[in-house]
Design a protein that fits this description.
By secondary structure, the chain is of the alpha+beta class. 38% of the residues lie in helices and 18% in strands. It is built from 6 helices and 8 strands. The strands form 2 sheets. Strands 7-3-6-5-8 form a 5-stranded antiparallel β-sheet, with helices on both faces. A 3-stranded antiparallel β-sheet has the order 2-1-4, with helices on one face. The longest helix has 21 residues.
Length: 246
């Protein structure tokens, strides 16, 4: 892995988590934070990428956590404005991190149909991700694994095109084209995506390294997996640390 880059200036467009600004919070199956102007680390996965036993395990952990917080475990899109210093936000963030660590470990085991290992299908996903780059969002980095996608992006007009709507749009477009290519119908992507606000340049570096290293961690041929970092970021030294960043 490349030497840590925390001494480097971040890309000019990057903005991490601001302690002095409010965040908007809501939860469905997962908690979600929103802060205008921030960059996000996002993961979305194929609907068949986790077996029911794993989904039941996640539900059980989620119910227990909601009970400990005094929150009903039902899905809700009701938004609450919180201060980042609220103790509840710290607990939510830690719970989210632990849940996603479990999910990512399972995803890297290659469960489900893994249709995105087919280049003609993974290219549909990358085309969809690039479609609104520099228009509705700044696309910074991604990897398309056989059964999931990691990316970093920044909504450019979060009041008009919030993160959840951007992701729904890209998943809907790619799902239509992939299902057409596979001569099938039905749900392709898991409805809800995982997202986290990137805290600071150190965290940004860690996220980029994590995304770039995902194929190796899963035991796959790195050259066969679509990976990309924004070219101007690469020129500033914020690539994956190997020859496949462009």
């Amino acid at each position: 892995m490349a030497t840590q880059s925390f001494n480097r200036d971040p890309p000019a467009s990057f903005r991490g988590f601001h302690d002095d600004l409010p965040i908007t919070f809501y939860h469905r199956n997962l908690p979600h934070w929103r802060q205008d102007g921030a960059h996000y680390f996002v993961t979305f996965r194929l609907a068949d990428s986790l077996p029911q036993s794993k989904l039941n395990e996640l539900k059980s952990l989620r119910r227990a956590f909601f009970a400990s917080m005094g929150i009903a475990g039902r899905r809700t899109d009701r938004r609450s404005v919180l201060l980042p210093t609220d103790e509840a936000t710290k607990k939510w963030e830690e719970f989210t991190r632990q849940q996603m660590q479990r999910v990512e470990k399972w995803l890297d085991q290659g469960m489900g149909s893994c249709v995105l290992k087919r280049p003609e299908l993974s290219s549909i996903v990358t085309d969809a991700l690039h479609h609104f780059d520099n228009d509705r969002y700044e696309l910074c980095c991604y990897v398309v694994m056989p059964n999931h996608v990691h990316l970093i992006l920044k909504p450019l007009q979060p009041d008009v095109h919030p993160l959840e709507k951007l992701l729904q749009s890209r998943k809907r477009q790619s799902a239509y084209q992939i299902n057409l290519a596979l001569h099938q119908t039905g749900q392709l992507w898991q409805e809800e995506s995982f997202d986290r606000i990137i805290r600071d340049p150190d965290h940004l570096y860690q996220c980029i390294e994590y995304i770039g290293d995902n194929p190796r961690r899963a035991g796959l041929d790195v050259s066969s997996i679509p990976r990309w970092v924004r070219p101007e970021w690469v020129r500033l030294g914020w690539g994956f640390g190997d020859a496949l960043t462009g």
